[in-house]
Design brief:
Layout lengths: L6 H6 L5 E4 L3 H9 L3 E4 L5 H12 L3 E3 L3
Organism: Rosa chinensis
EC number: 2.4.1.-
Protein name: Putative hexosyltransferase
C-alpha cells in the first residue's frame, strides 16, 4: 500500500472498470472528469446527497448495501 498515488493516472488506466467512492465532492468530480463508473459507499453527511445525484439522476453508478 502506498501513502499517495497519482489518482489521475489510476483512473484513466485501461484496467479500471469502476471507482469505489465514498461520494465526496472531489471524488465525484475526479470520476466524472475521467468517465469512470462508480460504486458508491457514502458514510457521512453530504455524501448521501452526492450519491443520490450520481446514482439516481446521472445513472452512472451502483450503491453498495451492507
Amino acid at each position: 500500500m502506498v501513502g499517495w498515488a497519482p489518482q489521475q493516472k489510476v483512473l484513466v488506466h485501461p484496467s479500471i472498470a469502476c471507482f469505489l467512492s465514498h461520494c465526496g465532492r472531489n471524488s465525484i468530480l475526479e470520476g466524472l472528469s475521467n468517465g469512470v463508473s462508480f460504486l458508491c459507499w457514502p458514510y457521512f453527511v453530504d455524501q448521501f446527497l452526492n450519491k443520490s445525484y450520481v446514482c439516481d439522476i446521472l445513472l452512472i453508478s451502483s450503491l453498495i448495501r451492507i
